[in-house]
Amino acid sequence: MNLRIPYRGLVVGAVAFGLGTMWQARRRRGAAITELTEKLARFQAAQEATRAELASMPKSTRKLMREWSQVVYTEVEDLMALYRDIGPEQALPRMHGWAAGPDLARFLYLEVVERGRSAVLECGSGSTTVILAYACRAVGKGRVFALEHNPRFASATRKMLEERGLSEWAEVVDAPLTEVSVGGGTQLWYDPAVIPDQSFDLVLVDGPPGSVGPQARYPAVPLLVDRLTEDAMVVLDDARRTDERDIGERWAAEHDGFGLEWFTHDHGTLVLRNNADDEPDPDPRAV
Q1: Which UniProt keywords apply (predicted)?
Q2: pTM
Q3: Which residues contact 272 (CB under 8 A, 6 or more apart)?
Q4: CATH class for the domain made up of 102-278
Q5: Scanning 11, 51, 189, 195, which has the fewest C-beta atoms within 10 Å of its C-beta?
Q6: Residue 35 binned pLDDT confidence (cut-offs 50, 70, 90)
């Protein structure tokens, strides 16, 4: 049984708010770093107090809390690293709740900055669109295309890009859901006619939402496999859900030459790699 920690969003959200607020005052960097250090010290002190209380709790509860603590620390570290790497002039988008967490966001950022991926397609839009646009800007090349079926979400993402001067690095494509033929049947998915006519070396699958129907994200690989480069990778978010795990296993079984990896990000991430045997060592958090 997959257990979700209800406090994760509160802790990461609070840290994100603190970091974002401090980064607004870039000219006061010294004071901001001091304040951040003090906040982290208070957080660590609170955790030590919690550990003392846990001593009398059942072993299963202590194990769960240790796992939760590791997730929180990892996300805080990745969020801080993103602020350090990007150095944004305003706060980064929120990365908690329904949005991809800082762990997945930084994983994607490094794929562009360190591994040279430059042709990016997103199924869904949001905070990751902004992070990927920052990554393209950092290396001075590449472009992100984000398919979005919800006009409200599309508008919100465009606004985030415009506010940060990133519109030339990322484009939100209005992509209504339509019936597509895959797997011997039909499903609702983004209208293939609006997808740019090019190849992609990074595809992030974070939509459509599960409410669209069973295995709503499955069509991504069958419909895009002919557009994937030789070293392409497909990243599937929310892989702690059974539906997404089944999708990933189905992709790997149906397409020769692709390998599947699991990453212990908060929401769970599955990565499908083309020519997987030729890929470099994965993120150390992969298991």
Answers
A1: Methyltransferase, Transferase
A2: 0.76
A3: 221, 233, 234, 235, 236, 248, 251, 252, 255, 258, 259, 260
A4: alpha beta
A5: 51
A6: confident
